[in-house]
Amino acid sequence: MQKIDKEELQKRLDQITDLFASLVTHADHQSTWRCPYKNRYDQCTAHFGCRNQLKAGGKGELPLCAGDDKLNYRSAWNTQ
Ligand code: SF4
């Protein structure tokens, strides 16, 4: 088995830390305006009603999100 060089290991850990830090920064920023239930295809993954949901074309497909990402999306949720 090959020995692990501690300096090389630390360098790689630092690279991974930098990578995840930038992902977290982006997610933090995006969460201030984009609903967390909206996926990358603009579909709604919420398991509750929301007035921004539009019926999808196909059976079993997720509803589409009609939210414009400019409003406070929480006021549209049916939370009863
Ligand atoms: S705003 Fe409403 S419809 Fe859009 S993803 Fe969020 S919960 Fe779903």
Task: Characterise this structure.
The protein has 80 residues and is mainly alpha-helical. The chain has a domain at 33-80. 31% of the residues lie in helices and 5% in strands. Strands 1-2 form a two-stranded antiparallel ribbon. The longest helix has 25 residues, at 6-30. The protein starts with 5 loop residues before the first helix and ends in a 15-residue tail after the last strand. The model has no long low-confidence stretch (mean pLDDT 87). The structure holds iron/sulfur cluster. The site of iron/sulfur cluster (SF4) has 13 residues, from loops.
Write out key terms for the chains shown:
80 residues, mainly alpha, 1 helix, 31% helix, binds iron/sulfur cluster
Q: Count the helices. How many?
A: 1
Largest sheet: 2 strands, antiparallel
Q: Into which percentage range does the β-strand content fall? A: 5-15%
Main-sheet strand order equals 1-2
Average pLDDT for all residues: 87
The number of E-state strands comes to 2
Assembly classification: single chain
List SSEs in N-to-C order. Answer: HEE
Distance between the termini: 59 Å
**What structural class should be given to the helix and strand makeup?**
mainly alpha
Percent of residues in helices comes to 25-40%
| Cα Rg | 20 Å
Attached small molecules = iron/sulfur cluster
Q: Estimate the global geometry from the Cα principal axes.
A: elongated
Uncertain regions: pLDDT < 50 for 5+ in a row? none
